[in-house]
Write a structure and sequence with these properties.
CATH superfamily of the largest domain: Glycosyl hydrolase domain, family 43
Radius of gyration: 22 Å
Strand order of the largest sheet: 19-1-2-3-4-35
Oligomer: single chain
Structural class: mainly beta
Helix content: under 10%
Number of helices: 1
CATH architecture of the largest domain: 5 Propeller
Number of domains: 2
Shape: globular
CATH class of the largest domain: Mainly Beta
Strand content: over 45%
Distance between the termini: 21 Å
CATH topology of the largest domain: Tachylectin-2, Chain A
Number of strands: 35
Length: about 475
C-alpha cells in the first residue's frame, strides 16, 4: 500500500491534481472538478478532472470534464467555477494558449455547457471566448484568471483575479445572459503582488466574505457589497496558515441545504525536489469545510460533519494528567482524528504538545504545539521525516481571540501524509509530512514545563473513504 496517499482525503486516481474547480450540488449529487494532468504526476497539460459524491466524503471519479481544445489554440484549461442555471450547468474557466495566448498577457475566459441532464459530458460553444482582455480598454490587467460567477437581482456578476498596477486585484463584470459581459471595474484590491482564485460567500444584509490566494497563505476579507465593490472591510484574516506547505487555491459553493462549503488544495511542495519514493500521484484536497460568519467579521470553519461517518474504534480519556515527560497513548495509526478539550486556567503557562506519527525510537514525530502564552499553534515538522530533502519548516498560526474563559478545543486530522489542525473552529493549519519508518504511527502527549490536566481527549481511527473510478 502507498503509505503517503491519504485514505479519507480526496485524491485523483493517479497523476497530478491541483486547484479544486467548479463545485456544485444539483438534485442531491455533489460535483467536484479539479486541475489535472492525466498523463504525469507533475504540472502540465491541464484538464479538469471530475468526480461526484452523495456526501462529500465518498467519491466516484468520472472521465475528465474539460480538455484543452488544441485545434482552437488552447493548451491549458485553468481554474474556474460552475453555475447552476435552471436545469443547465455552465462552467467558466481561464483558457490558456501559446504565444499571444500566454497566461500573463493573453488569457481568455471560456465557458462550457452541460451536454445532457446526467452532467457527465460538456460542450464548449462557438461563442468562446466569452471575455477577453479587450474588455478593459486602457485598464491593463496581467495574470487575469480564475472566474467566479454569482447571481444578483439585476443579473449575473463575475470576479476575476490578477495583477493591476503592480498589486493583486479582483475585477468585476456584469451580464444578463452569461454570454455577453461588460467590465465594471475594481471589486477590491490588496497589497499582495497577485490575487488568484477570488471567490465569495454572501451573507445577510449584503455582508460578504471575499477569499483570495496570493501565492501564499489563503486570505479573506469580510465587508459589504456596495455598488459592485467590497467596502467597509470589517476583518482581514487568514483562512489557513499552511499556504503552499498545505493549503492553497480555495474555492467554495452553497449546497442545497444552504451550507457554505469551502474546498482547498493540499500541494506536495513539502516533498522537495528529489523525493526518494516514486509515486504515481501528486496533490490532495483538504477536508471540505463549513464556513460561518461571526459577529466580529471572523469566519468559523469546521470539517463537514459527514466526515464523522468514517470514525472507527474510539479511544476516550478524561481528566488526563500530562507532564513534560512524553506519554504514549494506546493509539497507533496513520489515519485518525483527535479531539482535545482543555480549560484555559488549568493550562496556565503550559504549552501542550501532541506528537503524531511518532516512532518508538523517537527519531520521527510531528508535533502540534498549542501555546496560550505566545498565542500560537504550530505544526513542528523538524523531526517529521528521516528523508534529507523534504521540507521540515514549521507551519504556525495565531490563535483566535479568547472570549472570557471559554475552553480550548484542539481538533486534529491525520491522514498518511496530511495533517489538518483546527483550534476553536477558527484558526486552521494544514501541512504535509513524509515519515520513513514503518513504526512511525504513535500518538503521544506532553507539556512544555510541568503537569497539566486535559479535560478530555478523544481519538478515532478513521476508515478509508470509498473513492473509486466509475
Amino acid at each position: 500500500m502507498d503509505r503517503y496517499r491519504p485514505r479519507y482525503h480526496f485524491t485523483a486516481p493517479r497523476n497530478w491534481m491541483n486547484d479544486p474547480n467548479g463545485p456544485f450540488q444539483l438534485n442531491g449529487e455533489y460535483h467536484l472538478f479539479y486541475q489535472h494532468n492525466p498523463s504525469k504526476p507533475e504540472w502540465g497539460d491541464i484538464h479538469w478532472g471530475h468526480a461526484v459524491s452523495r456526501d462529500l466524503v465518498n467519491w466516484t471519479h468520472l472521465p475528465y470534464g474539460l480538455a484543452p481544445s488544441h485545434e482552437r489554440g488552447e493548451i491549458h484549461c485553468y481554474s474556474g467555477c460552475a453555475v447552476v442555471d435552471g436545469d443547465e450547468v455552465k462552467l467558466f474557466y481561464t483558457s490558456i494558449g501559446e504565444g499571444d495566448r500566454n497566461a500573463t498577457t493573453g488569457a481568455e475566459q471560456w465557458m462550457a455547457h452541460s451536454s445532457g441532464r446526467d452532467l457527465r459530458s460538456w460542450h464548449k460553444p462557438d461563442i468562446n471566448p466569452v471575455l477577453t482582455l479587450n474588455l478593459h480598454g486602457e485598464t491593463y490587467v496581467q495574470d487575469w484568471r480564475d472566474p467566479y460567477v454569482w447571481k444578483e437581482t439585476d443579473g449575473w456578476r463575475m470576479i476575476l483575479g490578477g495583477i493591476y498596477e503592480g498589486k493583486g486585484v479582483a475585477m468585476i463584470y456584469k451580464s444578463e445572459d452569461l454570454e455577453n459581459w461588460s467590465f465594471i471595474g475594481v471589486f477590491h484590491q490588496g497589497e499582495e503582488h497577485i490575487w488568484e482564485c477570488p471567490h465569495l460567500f454572501r451573507f445577510e444584509e449584503d455582508k460578504a466574505v471575499l477569499f483570495y490566494s496570493p501565492s501564499g497563505q489563503v486570505r479573506y476579507m469580510t465587508g459589504t457589497i456596495n455598488g459592485d465593490k467590497l467596502t467597509d472591510v470589517q476583518m482581514h484574516g487568514t483562512v489557513d496558515f499552511g499556504g503552499m506547505q498545505g493549503y492553497y487555491a480555495s474555492t467554495g459553493f452553497v449546497d442545497e441545504a444552504g451550507r457554505r462549503i469551502l474546498l482547498g488544495w493540499s500541494p506536495e511542495e513539502a516533498r522537495g525536489k528529489d523525493f526518494l519514493v516514486n509515486l504515481d500521484w501528486a496533490g490532495a484536497l483538504a477536508l471540505p469545510r463549513v464556513v460561518q460568519l461571526k459577529p466580529n467579521g471572523a469566519i468559523a470553519m469546521s470539517p463537514v460533519p459527514e466526515i464523522e461517518r468514517l470514525r472507527g474504534s474510539h479511544h476516550m480519556f478524561q481528566q488526563l494528567r500530562v507532564s513534560s515527560t512524553k506519554v504514549d497513548t494506546d493509539l497507533h495509526s496513520t489515519s485518525f482524528e483527535c479531539l482535545l478539550e482543555m480549560d484555559r486556567d488549568a493550562l496556565g503557562v503550559q504549552a501542550i504538545i501532541v506528537s503524531l506519527f511518532a516512532s518508538p525510537c523517537g527519531r520521527e514525530h510531528t508535533d502540534v504545539r498549542l501555546d496560550l502564552v505566545s498565542n500560537k499553534v504550530t505544526i513542528d515538522r523538524s523531526s517529521s521525516s528521516l528523508f534529507p530533502d523534504v521540507n521540515k519548516t514549521p507551519v504556525e498560526g495565531n490563535l483566535p481571540q479568547a472570549e472570557g474563559s471559554e475552553p480550548v478545543k484542539l481538533r486534529i486530522f491525520a491522514d498518511q501524509s496530511m495533517i489538518e489542525v483546527f483550534v476553536n473552529d477558527e484558526t486552521c493549519l494544514t501541512a504535509r509530512v513524509y515519515p520513513t519508518l514503518e513504526e512511525s504511527n504513535g500518538l503521544a502527549l506532553q507539556t512544555s514545563l510541568s503537569e497539566a490536566v486535559i479535560s478530555s481527549m478523544q481519538a478515532w481511527e478513521m476508515k478509508a473513504a470509498d473513492i473509486r473510478e466509475e
